[in-house]
Write a structure and sequence with these properties.
By secondary structure, chain A is an all-alpha fold. Chain A folds into two domains: about 25-175, no CATH class; about 185-360, no CATH class. Helix content of chain A is about 85%, strand content about 0%. Chain A has 14 helices and no strands. In chain A, helix 4 packs antiparallel against helix 6 (about 125-140), helix 9 runs antiparallel to helix 12 and helix 11 runs antiparallel to helix 12. Chain B has one domain: Sandwich (Jelly Rolls). Chain B is about 40% helix and about 20% strand. Chain B has helices spanning about 1-20, 20-30, 40-50, 130-140, 140-165, and strands at about 50-55, 60-65, 70-75, 80-85, 95, 100, 115-120, 125-130. Chain B has a four-stranded antiparallel beta sheet with strand order 1-8-3-6. Chain B has a four-stranded antiparallel beta sheet with strand order 2-7-4-5, with no helix packed on it. In chain B, helix 2 (about 20-30) packs across helix 3 (about 40-50). The N and C termini of chain B lie far apart (about 60 Å). The chains are: A mainly alpha, B alpha+beta. The interface of A and B includes residues 183, 188 and 357 of A.
């Protein structure tokens, strides 16, 4: 028997409003929210592995320390292994950017020439010359304008990213104790329903993060397969980069698309068709992602109506910009579950009166323990 | 080398005991409860992570008839009084003491409670939620099966006594 009621209109509106408020606040402390979310994602991905090790007789502390340690060593190893290459590439970043932008410029020039042949009116607007001038300005000042900002952003973000393994370790070690600690403060009257709230919240978060990973995997496979068939390399790396970038809706997708098209245009300077096919492939995968994969993975697991998902994307973007876009669905999912249970607990007169009665009994017990005469002030159960 | 290993092992045990004296006593209390009686110390420690200890004052309602149950309660100390409205339960034992469990039906289905249960004196109980019990069954089958067998055995005993018309502790 499923007694969990569907949320009412008022609950839903309040949930949406609270979601907007939370998104607004998250935008202000994004430096803490991002490591926290990454740690949560690690927690939900690594928890089954920890449980499996514990089941095989390994003590939890060793299992968690071992797994987080291996990840840390791998990360540090990869960083040290890639650091020399990375430093060389950063030193040559201007050349690399010029190389790929040159490929893109070539593609654009060819496209404009083709368009001018089709529509001579465009030739009179001298689009070709204007575009060349603008791209030249962009590439000339790219290092001065963007590399400095990029380095500064990295410096600001790096310290907060060091929180990720630290938070992951403590989440894996102490999540149960933390949950019990929070539950201990809940009055007996609301205890059972609140436990249900925690169980459902946990399930929502687990579903979201696992759904997100599944979505990234599907995107990577589709893009990489398409790029491999077209002969654009490295197909897997490009697919993965575009899939991870698409965690940031719209902006991330556009960036992923630009990178893929630039690589294709540079690898095949004499065959602009390949770049156009890449663009079409990217659009197809995005459509597939938004209308098939997303509802099948994240949307369905969070039990959010597709119309509400789209509405929440726009609301999130309005309230908190890019942060709102990325976090709109997970925050709404969590708030919807929390809102419904809180509404059920608060609206339940029986539970409220039971709480008042228990409070009176507790104060009477304290009074009798302190040597004063016990006295019940009221019996709220009546 | 062997001596060094022995010393390390002793040191590790000493540290473990030093760090968890309260846990030892608590887990031992858990193992004395009928439903967790078959568990080893290590297994009981694992189950303890999932249990929630609650203290009820005399007269405080633990759950009410008609409430949707989400978990099982086991009396650790104190006594509780069962107040059923159902005719079949009128002949049942209506005072439940340490080691007995309540609300085991809700571990298997989300259904309304059959009776109201009130603390007859200051009572300490541990609660296990259905979601946590399900995760225990999938994550640690060995512990899950042991608890499940104990639960089933208790419920069988209660049903048998009910059918024989003997005084029985009701399954709520």
């Amino acid at each position: 028997m499923n007694t969990f009621r569907q949320p009412g209109a008022v609950t839903m509106v309040v949930t949406i409003l609270i979601t907007c408020l939370v998104l607004f606040l998250f935008q202000k402390i994004i430096w803490l929210v991002v490591p926290g979310l990454l740690a949560l994602m690690n927690y939900y991905c690594l928890r089954p592995l920890v449980d499996r090790l514990v089941l095989r007789g390994v003590r939890r502390v060793w299992a968690v320390a071992g797994i987080v340690g291996v990840i840390l060593v791998l990360t540090v190893g990869i960083v040290f292994l890639l650091a020399p290459q990375l430093l060389t590439r950063i030193a040559r970043l201007q050349d690399t950017v010029d190389h790929y932008l040159g490929g893109g410029q070539n593609l654009l020039r060819r496209t404009i020439q083709t368009l001018e042949e089709v529509a001579p009116v465009l030739k009179r607007a001298s689009l070709d010359r204007k575009m060349d001038l603008q791209i030249q300005q962009f590439t000339d000042q790219f290092a001065d304008r963007h590399l400095g900002k990029l380095a500064l952003q990295l410096l600001i973000w790096l310290p907060s990213l060091f929180l990720v393994p630290y938070l992951t370790y403590f989440l894996l070690m102490d999540s149960t104790r933390l949950k019990k600690f929070l539950i201990r403060s809940i009055p007996n009257a609301f205890f059972e329903k609140s436990l249900l709230l925690f169980a459902r919240l946990d399930e929502s978060l687990r579903s979201f993060f696992q759904g997100l990973l599944l979505l990234t995997f599907l995107d990577t496979i589709c893009l990489a397969a398409g790029l491999f068939v077209l002969g654009v390399s490295p197909a897997l790396l490009l697919g993965l980069a575009a899939a991870v970038l698409s965690w940031i809706p719209y902006l991330g997708s556009a960036l992923g698309c630009i990178i893929v098209v630039l690589v294709a245009a540079t690898d095949f300077p004499d065959r602009p068709t390949i770049a156009y096919i890449c663009l079409a492939l990217f659009l197809c995968v995005r459509l597939l992602d938004d209308f098939v994969f997303l509802p099948l993975t994240i949307g369905r697991k969070l039990h959010i109506h597709p119309l509400l998902s789209v509405l929440m994307f726009f609301l999130g973007a309005t309230v908190a910009g890019g942060t709102g876009l990325v976090l709109a669905l997970p925050v709404l999912g969590v708030m919807a579950v929390a809102g419904e249970i809180v509404a059920q607990v608060v609206m339940d007169r029986r539970l409220r009166s039971r709480y008042r009665a228990a409070r009176d009994l507790a104060s009477a017990w304290t009074t009798s323990r302190d040597g004063r005469s016990p006295q019940l002030t009221r019996n709220s159960l009546d | 080398m062997a001596l060094r290993m022995l010393t390390l092992s002793r040191f590790s045990k000493a540290v473990h005991l030093f760090r968890t004296p309260a846990n030892r006593e608590r887990v031992q209390t858990l193992r004395n409860l009928d439903v967790f009686h078959d568990l080893t110390f290590k297994e009981a420690l694992e189950v303890d992570e999932l249990l929630h200890e609650r203290v009820y004052e005399k007269g405080e309602i633990i759950f009410e008839e008609g409430d949707i149950g989400h978990g099982i309660f086991v009396v650790v100390s104190g006594r509780v009084r069962v107040d059923p409205s159902h005719e079949l339960l009128k002949s049942a034992v209506l005072e439940i003491g340490p080691g007995e469990m309540l609300g085991e039906l809700s571990l298997f289905e989300e259904a309304p409670r059959f009776a109201t249960v009130v603390a007859a004196e200051r009572t300490v109980m541990v609660a296990l939620l259905r979601a946590e019990f399900s995760s225990l069954l999938t994550k640690n089958t060995k512990i899950g099966v042991k608890v499940l067998v104990r639960l089933s055995s208790t419920m069988c005993g209660r049903v048998r006594r009910l059918l024989r018309g003997e005084r029985h502790t009701p399954s709520l």
